[in-house]
Amino acid sequence: MPTLATVEGIKVQIYALEHPPPHFHVVFAEYRAQIDISSLRVLNGQLPHTKLEAVLSWASPRRQALLTAWETIASGRKPEKIA
Question: Is residue 60 part of a domain?
Fold first, then answer.
């Protein structure tokens, strides 16, 4: 489970051998959530509102990079960090 980025203390990760739809995981303290890459909708879990807003603001212009990372991991390769 590579950490692709850290946004305001929130780890952004994509796990190997994941199920569709393409999504990423966020981890902050005791909070965990899965977020769909295309819609940026929370699929499971939760984050505090301000932290969720920060992650969604970060992810919105990086959807293509997140999808590329998803595809890279799905093919068994190591993704690059996302700035």
Answer: yes
